[in-house]
Design brief:
alpha+beta, Immunoglobulin-like, 2 domains, four-stranded antiparallel beta sheet, about 35% helix, globular, disordered C terminus
Length: about 270
């Protein structure tokens, strides 16, 4: 009898400790490719959403996000990114095999946005898999085809997520304005061309909300950036004039590192 009780206690302890929430830093190179042409896609906008779940008592951690308790967004960042650049993440959630008390899980969600492509989302699990395999993470983007159901759903999903975390978007930021303008333009095309009435209605509602959010920004940020002047004619070899033909992207953007401090947050009091 005593042995049976001890075995039961041991089994319960193993369930509670078999999985755990750990955190480590991950640096992974992203390869962003056109799915059809297999060419690099440049000048994308990377929307990163950091979430955490506090006090997840009694839940089981499985593949679905909902099973870990409510993941509450805490930080949203936006950066420009080209194919071949590196993304930095801190915080890995390891699968839990049993219930846990006051679980503190962290999660990342990424949305990759580009003008001529569908918005694409990828979760931290893909990033960590690439990290563990010590190879770049390749993301294939499809050309946006407004009126095609799967493409319209992608646009609507991205717009819903961006609206949901809108209050956390960096304020007074030209990159935030760029994200809103891009999604608004894609929603406008869905509204005009979709043959599915519910998608048209959803696009119209999201357009109203995102335009209201966009109009709160200062006028100088809402103005379109001036186009670069055309390169003067030159008789120099192409190799020497190449730097002038490259798009001005500004200084290199450092990997995101703001969330390093967030992992030390204590549970927020309601």
């Amino acid at each position: 009898m005593i042995a049976r009780i001890l075995l039961s206690l041991l089994a319960g302890l193993l369930l509670l400790t078999a999985g755990c929430v750990t955190a480590h830093e991950v640096d992974v190179k992203l390869k962003i490719r056109d799915h059809i042409d297999n060419q690099d896609v440049e000048d994308c906008l990377l929307l990163s959403i950091y979430s955490e779940s506090l006090d997840s008592e009694g839940y089981w951690w499985v593949a679905e996000e909902e099973s870990a308790g409510r993941m509450i967004p805490r930080l949203v960042t936006v950066r420009r990114i080209n194919s071949g650049e590196t993304i930095h993440q801190k915080g890995k959630v390891v699968m839990l095999l049993g219930p846990y008390v006051r679980g503190h899980t962290v999660g990342w969600e990424y949305w990759l946005l580009h003008g001529g492509f569908q918005p694409d989302d990828f979760l931290d699990a893909h990033l960590e898999r690439a990290y563990e395999q010590e190879k770049p993470l390749t993301i294939h983007l499809l050309k946006e085809k407004s009126g095609k159901l799967s493409s319209d759903e992608k646009v609507l999903d991205a717009a819903r997520r961006i609206e949901a975390v809108g209050d956390l978007l960096p304020p007074d930021s030209a990159l935030t304005v760029a994200v809103l303008k891009l999604v608004i333009e894609q929603l406008r095309r869905v509204k005009m061309r979709s043959l599915v009435s519910k998608d048209v209605d959803a696009a119209a509602e999201l357009l109203k909300k995102l335009r209201e959010r966009l109009n709160k920004f200062p006028a100088d940020l809402l103005q379109e950036a001036p186009a670069p002047p055309p390169a003067p004619p030159s008789s120099q070899p192409q190799a020497e004039s190449q730097p002038e033909s490259q798009p001005a992207t500004g200084p290199a953007i450092k990997p995101i590192d703001q969330p390093r401090q967030l992992l030390d947050l204590k549970p927020a009091e309601e």
